[in-house]
Design goal:
Radius of gyration: 18 Å
Number of helices: 9
Number of domains: 2
CATH architecture of the largest domain: Orthogonal Bundle
Largest sheet: none
C-alpha cells in the first residue's frame, strides 16, 4: 500500500517513526536540491531547519498538503536568509536538466546557466515557478497551493518563464540552426 503524504504525517503523529522516515526519504533529495540551488553555503543548515520546523508544525496542526507545506517552509527560510539580497544566487555547479529535445542540444550549458541567472534576477516570480516545477518536480496544482494562486496562474507564469528564456537564447538558437542546416 502506498501511503499519501498526509497519511504518513498522521501515522507519525500517532507514534510511528517509520512513517516520518518514509516521508523524509520521499522528499529529502528534491528539497535539498531546491535549497542548495538558492543558497549553497547555508544549504545543510536550512535543510535541517526546514524539517525541524515541519515536525513542530505537524505536531501542532493538521497539514493538508505536506509537500507544499515543507517547500513553503524552505522557501521562507531562504527568503529570510537573503532579505537584503534581491538577486537569487546560483552556484557554478547548477544542475541543468537533460532534455531529449533537439533544440536543447543546440544550446550550451553555459548559455542556459546564464539565461537562468538572468531570469532569476529580472523575473524572480517566474524563476520560482520554473524552479519548483522543473527542479523540485512539483505540479502546477502543488505550486498554486504553495503560492496561494490558481493552477492556471502558475501555468501562465511558467509559460512566461519559458518564453523569457527562449527570447534570451534566440540568437544562440538561430546561430546553431544555421550551422545545422548549412
Amino acid at each position: 500500500m502506498k501511503w499519501s503524504d498526509a497519511e504518513l504525517i498522521e501515522e507519525y503523529n500517532s507514534g510511528n517513526l517509520d512513517a516520518f522516515h518514509l516521508f523524509y526519504e520521499r522528499y529529502k533529495d528534491i528539497l535539498f536540491t531546491f535549497i542548495y540551488n538558492r543558497c549553497r553555503e547555508e544549504a545543510n543548515d536550512l535543510f535541517q531547519e526546514t524539517f525541524m520546523k515541519f515536525i513542530d508544525a505537524a505536531k501542532k496542526k493538521k497539514i493538508e498538503n505536506p509537500k507544499s507545506y515543507l517547500f513553503q517552509i524552505a522557501m521562507n527560510l531562504v527568503r529570510n536568509l537573503g532579505r537584503n539580497a534581491k538577486v537569487v544566487s546560483l552556484s557554478d555547479d547548477f544542475d541543468i536538466p537533460n532534455y531529449d529535445d533537439e533544440q536543447d542540444d543546440l544550446i550550451s550549458e553555459e548559455s542556459l546557466h546564464e539565461s537562468l541567472k538572468q531570469l532569476a534576477q529580472e523575473k524572480p516570480l517566474f524563476y520560482d515557478i520554473l524552479h519548483l516545477h522543473v527542479f523540485a518536480k512539483m505540479t502546477f496544482n502543488e505550486i498554486g497551493k504553495l503560492k496561494g494562486k490558481s493552477k492556471d496562474t502558475i501555468a501562465s507564469r511558467y509559460r512566461y518563464a519559458i518564453h523569457f528564456l527562449r527570447k534570451i537564447l534566440k540568437d544562440e538558437l538561430d546561430k546553431a540552426k544555421e550551422v545545422n542546416y548549412a
